[in-house]
Amino acid sequence: MLFSEENKESNDSLDLTPLEDLLNYQHENETIKEEAPQILQQIKDTWPDLHGEDTIKPEYQLPHKIQERRERGRIRSKISRDRKKEYVGVLESKIKALEEENSRLQNIVINLNTEKYSKVDPNSKAFLQDIQELKNKTVERFFNVDTMEHKSNPSITLGKNYWMSSSEAMNKHRQFLDSVFEMIINHPYSVTRYRYWKDLNSEYQTDFECIKKLKKLSKYQIPEFMKENNLSPLDEYVASFNPSKRQFDFLKDVALKKELAIKNQFRTAIELLLEAKSIIQKANLEIYTFIGFFLKSGIFSDEQLLKSKIKDGFFRKELAFKNIWNIQVSHQRYCVDMGEDEIYGKVAKKYLKKPERIIYFEYNDYSLPV
């Protein structure tokens, strides 16, 4: 090397003259020139090459334990990343599967509701089929099915058969009526159903500040706040819009006011339906008891009854809609101008052009002949 330990100690211990010191400096300078190539080669051998070689001499490498610790850290990080990636993938798959299932169930509900609009639901069909089967059994007991002639010696009297079969038929018919009227009341309107209508029984009274506070609460704070302020799902519905004061006034004075008027129309119709159901049930009970009396009284013999036209009621499928009541069907086309509405007409004229305000609907109107 340039200066050995021995030379350093000797130089420190001697008191050299200026001439000797100069001679020593010249000697050391020549030694540096001779050893320079060796020093450069040593640097090249011990440090990575500048052109990309990253091999480090063993004596300059990190200790083996530190390398192992770093390697274990890299492995653990990779395992953690892989687990997270796998977990996220599983969650995404579950979310996709649940979304598909939710979509499938929604389609089933839509299809079921659509079928209920167009035809009687399966339960009602089953009730009608049961009633018809009871009629068929009566026919088989008293008539020859091929010729429709009455049997001379039936195994049971007509009155006794009536009480056995008609009570079951009455129960089936009662279930049928319940199902049909429930279906009608469940589907009086074809578009969106408003669950909050349950609380819409008068003009909306909640103030804007209360709705504003309700919107700012978390889902955990909402139940307690609603209970303290006596709020309803209707208020939740209004708050869900996060309305400005102007929008709140529109909801309160226009939208909910119009919906209340529409709900009252439906309420009137449903009251009439329920009254009609009650009348039908009472009339059914009266005809049930009267026919029982007519058959059981003995005023007419079974032979006379079976030869009479009363047998038509057992096996003929009378279409009462046309053949008895002679219901008149008229196709109507309705034209609605939203700009003429008493409640939101002015707003409709302000925001909609005239062609957009005109709506056409088609319905069948039923009426009894005068």
TrEMBL record:
Keyword Coiled coil in annotation: yes
Sections of the chain in a coiled coil: 81-115
Highest taxon of source: Eukaryota
Xref: SUPFAM superfamilies: Leucine zipper domain
Pfam families: bZIP_2 (PF07716)
The UniProt record lists the keyword Coiled coil: yes
BZIP domain residues: 63-115
Alphabetical UniProt keywords: Coiled coil
UniProt-recorded Gene Ontology molecular function terms: DNA-binding transcription factor activity
Name of the protein this chain belongs to: BZIP domain-containing protein
